[in-house]
Design goal:
Layout: E1 5-14, E2 21-26, E3 32-34, E4 37-40, H1 43-50, H2 56-65, H3 74-80, E5 91-94, E6 109-112, H4 124-140, E7 157-159, E8 170-178, E9 186-195, E10 200-208, H5 210-217, H6 219-233, E11 250-253, H7 271-277, E12 290-294, E13 299-304, E14 307-312, E15 320-322, E16 325-332
Helix pairs in contact: 4-6
Length: about 325
Amino acid sequence: MTAGYHEYRLRLIAMAPVHIGSGETYTAKNYIYENENYYFPNMGKMYLKLRQYPGVVEAFEKFLVNPSRRSNRLVDFLHQYKIMDRDFGGYKIPKTGHESARRGHLNEIHAFVKNGYGNAYIPGSSLKGALRTILVNEHFGNDNIAWGGVDDIFNEIRVSDSEPIPVDKLRIVQKWDLNRKKFEPKGLPLFREAIRPQTRIDFTITTTTARAEKLIDQLPQMAKRFYERYERQFLCDFPDKYVQPNHFLAPLYLGAGSGLWTKVDYGHVDLRGIQRRSYKKMKLKGKGVMKLTRYKRQSLKRIENGKQVKYMLINNDDHYYEMGKCGFKLQKKN
């Protein structure tokens, strides 16, 4: 075996909702809210089924392309034509009760990335980006980093896509911002499909050189140091009740909505430049707001000294989580 060639299993545990976007969005024309569920039908299968109803297909085509219709909700269209069939494939996501929506009606919902079989998954590139942030901050610092061309150290660290994640692990969550002045979370009309807390997701990391192996061996320790840096730089300005404990896991933030300071190179970040380039309505003020979302209170359980111990994921009674908060365990396979 080539020196430095090793495989690791990284088990990621979602400690808060996590969103990896596919770039697609669902509008009210693409989903049905009924019976406390958001149903995302297979639109192709729905079209074929509607062909059984005379005149409906033509109306359906107009419904999809005409933005000026009085009703733009798919559920209203089906009710109008008295179509009770809901066997259109696709999947359902149960309502959590923490979406601040009027009777279940949301704005656009940002879709989670899915594979060709319809299962959610986390691309290896997403996790690798989070690991790279940790390594750049805690190992390389201001040093010249060996990347680019044939001497790219990150080419020597390969991260697989995750194992498939069943869609029953998905929930719809809302974006909440917490600023430093009022410390009152503000709900925004932005909704995402997200992996629910407690979900466990496995990846394989492969190193191909000794220097890459050395880095990955130290990854959990560096993740903890990076979290301490993030805590000093940003989290310490906010009430403790909104900051989630790490418990027995190495901390990591993943996906959209976790905030600027979970993703940047602290040694080279140009905060003023970011502020200048931001759109006026989205202008970064100070260090920015804390990124939250809401979900029911959950806990992690594990056996310690022969007894089951429960670790609560949040420290508040208002169901606020840090968006994208995860923990991980790393095991060397060989």
